[in-house]
Amino acid sequence: MAEVERETEKPKTSTRDLDDVHARLTAWLVAQLPYGAAPEIGALSRPTSGGMSSETVLFDATWNEEGDQGGSRRCRSLVARLAPEASAVPVFPRYDLDRQARVIRLVGERTGVPVPLVRWFEPDAASLGSPFIVMDQVDGIAPPDVMPYNFGSWLMEAARVDQRRLQDASVSILADIHGVDATPEELAFLAVDAPGDSALRRHVNDLVAYYEWVRGDLHVPVIERGFGWIEANWPTEEGKAVVSWGDSRIGNILYRDFEPVAVLDWEMAAVAPREVDIGWMIFIHDFFEHVARQIELPGMPHFMRREDVAGVYEAASGVAPRNLEFYEVYAALRHAVVMARVTLRAIHFGESEMPDDRDELVLHRVLLSEMMNG
Question: How far apart are CA 329 and CA 85, in angstroms?
């Protein structure tokens, strides 16, 4: 169990000093608000759980509303999401926070999906060292990733009926996102910038380019076998391309009373077949279950089963998901490339050592191989 615990510890995500960020963020906020707003920012903090890509800071800000009389002030709980600095050895080669802000606003305006209110997007890196967005905080709780929620958490300890309610509501969120009514021109900003004659081909080619960036002069055989499997098992029909959330997992949703109240983390958003999101949601749970089995924990084998997810999705959207085996393997492959990058970051920061077997850069290498073998 010690090996799994070491590999699942939350790695370094930032090299920024919070006191410096506080001073610079305060100065920036003064410039955004009307004269006389006199903003003040409380202490900054970082989330105790969540992703490892963009940097996130939480804070309360108080200012006078325009037109307020008698010096009345209002406090808001906000979150700033910053593109990482190069010194943090980012997970992804590029961070388009303008695209993230635009897709959050689009989904919020065109659907009933709960998303945070985006107050500002700042494209100029001069203020905090990189572009950033500022959103309202939402009061809710996400199932933890570290340690995974199926190792023991509020979700695992909940009644089966509440677990199922959370699962079905989460799957329905995907159906709502995929139902965004927008023209191709309105969705052009989400198109994947990679060669290919279809949305899926461009999505896969973008993953190939990402892997080349991640690996440098290394080769990870299990990942390269995965790309071969994808080509050999390509769907005969790809289906309609829709707004794809990208990182579609319950760890990126805040819940209250087992109902979604905020859908977060849109850095992997794109235009892609709907099954890209469905396969990712199923696989991420399978990945956690795989780790639980390794250390002989009971896990949650009844949760996020393919047949249950597909049935709820079809009922919510009117569209039956197709080729889910393919898309689950594709999700495992995408996750493998991300995990290789995360492990290489850990090696860079002295949190891990380079393995002799490069496949060991991928925590779920055995699971990926088993999936490819049927």
Answer: 32
Question: Which CATH architecture group holds 2-136?
Answer: 2-Layer Sandwich (3.30)
Is 247 noted as a catalytic residue in this protein?
yes
In whole angstroms, what separates CA 347 from the centre of its chain?
22
- End-to-end alpha-carbon separation of the chain, Å? 27
CA distances from 367 to 1, 33, 237, 301, 373 (A): 17, 51, 26, 15, 10
| Omega cis (within 30) before 147 | yes
Class assignment of domain 149-372? alpha beta
Cα–Cα distance measured from residue 120 to residue 134, given in angstroms and rounded to the nearest whole number: 5
The full set of domain ranges for the chain reads 2-136, 149-372
The tens digit of pLDDT for each residue in 135-190 reads 999 999 999 999 999 999 999 999 999 999 999 999 999 999 999 999 999 999 99
- Looking at residue 6, what is its pLDDT? 37
* CA–CA distance, 304 with 284 (Å, rounded to integer): 9
Q: How confident is the model at residue 228 (pLDDT cuts 50, 70, 90)?
A: very high
**One of 247, 277, 286, 359 is an active-site residue; which one?**
247
Position 335: which residue type?
Answer: H
Q: Mind listing the pLDDT tens digit for each residue in 7-43?
A: 444 445 556 889 999 999 999 999 999 998 999 999 9
pLDDT in tens, 101-140: 999 999 999 999 999 999 999 999 999 999 999 999 999 9
Strand partners, 273: 241
Whole-prediction pTM: 0.92
